[in-house]
Specification:
By secondary structure, the protein is of the alpha+beta class. Helix content is 34%, strand content 28%. Among the domains are: 74 residues, no CATH class; 55 residues, no CATH class; 33 residues. Strand 1 and strand 2 form a beta hairpin. It is found in: Cytoplasmic vesicle, Secretory vesicle, Synaptic vesicle.
């Protein structure tokens, strides 16, 4: 019995020493890696064209999709906003060609890009406050009036980011009459709806009849996603190592 208790005490002491090394040394090494990776990611979100005082760089993206030419267009991305749009839509019912663009005084803010940039900045700020001298002690520490000419009343347009792609979706709608026998089921807040989806627009109840989607890859956003993935993997690996020592958190700080 005494030998077993002595062996357990030695094992516990070894684990405590390993945990202390993990908190005091390896954590800082991993955080330095994270800092370097996130700084590279933040460069992909730089808004200025050249230097800190330069104009915001414009990038043109040609939208397309495989197997259909119902929708064609070019979107101009400027930082975290779409500053210009030039879209052609071929109506499937009569092959009428519609053309619409953003009004000159309008921009379409892409909140997803803005949020991602803000999160990267916040993460870098937190890492900068945990330099090598910091001692870790515990493991627990997107409208119709937007376009010119105005869109027909039976069309809606949405622009959004999906992974590394800039996507534009055109919805053709028809109004559900008050005496309709269809059971009205609101589709909710999804960014992409399928034919048959229903929702309310003002006082009208509408149903999606056709959906046309085109997209274009944003190269620098693809790079940023790679950096995000590597950062998350590093964080998960560090979390898993610390979790090994979770049984010691409740009784002994380091």
């Amino acid at each position: 019995m005494a030998a077993a208790m002595a062996a357990t005490a030695v094992e516990r002491a070894v684990l405590e020493e390993e945990f202390r090394w993990l908190l005091h040394d390896e954590v800082h090494a991993v955080l330095k890696q994270l800092q370097d990776i996130l700084k590279e990611a933040s460069l992909r979100f730089t808004l200025q064209g050249s230097g800190t005082e330069g104009p915001v760089k414009q990038e043109n993206f040609i939208l397309g999709s495989y197997g259909t030419d119902q929708v064609k267009g070019v979107l101009t991305l400027q930082g975290d906003a779409l500053s210009q749009a030039d879209v052609n839509l071929k109506m499937p019912r009569n092959n009428q060609l519609l053309h619409f663009a953003f009004r000159e005084d309008k921009q379409w803010k892409l909140q997803q890009i803005q949020d991602a940039r803000n999160h990267v900045s916040q993460a870098i700020y937190l890492l900068n406050n945990r330099d090598d001298s910091y001692q870790f002690r515990t493991g627990a520490e997107v409208l119709k009036r937007m376009f010119a000419p105005a869109l027909p009343s039976d069309l809606l347009v949405n622009v959004y980011i999906n992974l590394n792609k800039l996507c534009l979706t055109v919805y053709q709608l028809h109004t559900l009459q008050p005496n309709s026998t269809k059971n009205f089921r609101p589709a909710g807040g999804s960014v992409l709806h399928s034919p048959g989806a229903m929702f309310e627009w003002g006082s009208q109840r509408l149903e999606v009849s056709h959906v046309h989607k085109v997209e274009s890859v944003i190269p620098w956003l693809n790079d940023a996603l790679v950096f995000f993935t590597v950062s998350l993997q590093l964080c998960q690996q560090l979390k898993d190592k610390i979790s090994v020592f979770s049984s010691y958190w409740s009784y002994k700080p380091f």
